[in-house]
Amino acid sequence: MADSVHSSAFIAPSAKIGKNVSIGPCAYIEDDVVIGDNCKIDAFASVKQYTTLGEGNHIHSYAMVGGEPQDLKFHGEKSELIIGNNNNIREFATLHRGTETGGFITKIGDNNLIMAYCHVAHDCQLGNNIVMSNNATLAGHCIVDDFAILGGLSAVHQFTRIGTHAFVGGASGITQDLPPYMLAVGNRATVHSPNIVGLRRMRASQELFSAIKQAFKLTWQSDIPRPDALDQLEAEYGHLPEIKIYIDFIRQSKRGIIANENKD
């Protein structure tokens, strides 16, 4: 069992608990749960059935991890929530398992910060080093790529994708895909600019800065048809891996990408 389990905590018989795990007062661990080494489960937190936690995760008080999907098509089938390593899941956050249409899996990567009252719905796929600020909400089947940041009170429509190093402003509604390295904000969010702060944090080269600015101009501010704009961008900057990621993201988008504030 774990190294430190409070006497009031409930741990189901089939739960598998790793080494050096701390489980606080009144925490609730259901059957068929796996908790990796060096995890910390705070007082009154719940880890529900069919949830797997990797190593070094911290589940704060009153968070509910692995709950049943809020989906009328779900009828109690076995489904999973799989969480990687070193994630920080704060108070009252809710993370739900998958459904049949999403392969019965919700998956979260490593080193993510999911702040208080956030919601990750069924079948979402989160990468690594993501920040979800307080009350940020993902509907079902969303994809969030590495290093994306979602501002507080933001809401992302189901089946929507947020690209790597993208930034969603606070209190924004995202209804279409947000490409990598871009910043979007608004009630029905529009793209305002490249994510300049994010590019500085990733120590982008001057060439990459110029390429991302050109990508923004060609995609949202020019009259060039979008396929032609992407071809032009690829011809100029296709040697940069980040630009290749950007171009592929837009070409593969199923929901279409977010409009510019002044131009669809």
From TrEMBL:
User: Residue limits of the UDP N-acetylglucosamine O-acyltransferase C-terminal domain?
Assistant: 177-258
**What does the subunit comment say?**
Homotrimer.
The record's annotation in NCBIfam families points to: lipid_A_lpxA, PRK05289.1
Q: What is this protein called?
A: Acyl-[acyl-carrier-protein]--UDP-N-acetylglucosamine O-acyltransferase
Protein family (similarity comment): Belongs to the transferase hexapeptide repeat family. LpxA subfamily.
Q: Cite the annotated pathway.
A: Glycolipid biosynthesis; lipid IV(A) biosynthesis; lipid IV(A) from (3R)-3-hydroxytetradecanoyl-[acyl-carrier-protein] and UDP-N-acetyl-alpha-D-glucosamine: step 1/6
GO MF terms held by the record: acyl-[acyl-carrier-protein]-UDP-N-acetylglucosamine O-acyltransferase activity
Q: Which HAMAP family match?
A: LpxA
Alphabetic keyword roster: Acyltransferase, Cytoplasm, Lipid A biosynthesis, Lipid biosynthesis, Lipid metabolism, Repeat, Transferase
Entry keyword annotation includes Lipid biosynthesis: yes
Q: Where in the cell is it found?
A: Cytoplasm
SUPFAM superfamilies from the UniProt entry: Trimeric LpxA-like enzymes
From the UniProt record, list the reaction(s) this protein catalyses.
Answer: a (3R)-hydroxyacyl-[ACP] + UDP-N-acetyl-alpha-D-glucosamine = a UDP-3-O-[(3R)-3-hydroxyacyl]-N-acetyl-alpha-D-glucosamine + holo-[ACP]
Q: Cytoplasm: present as a keyword of the record?
A: yes
Role this protein plays: Involved in the biosynthesis of lipid A, a phosphorylated glycolipid that anchors the lipopolysaccharide to the outer membrane of the cell.
What Pfam families does its record include? Acetyltransf_11, Hexapep
Q: What class of enzyme is it?
A: transferase
> Which Enzyme Commission number(s) are listed?
2.3.1.129
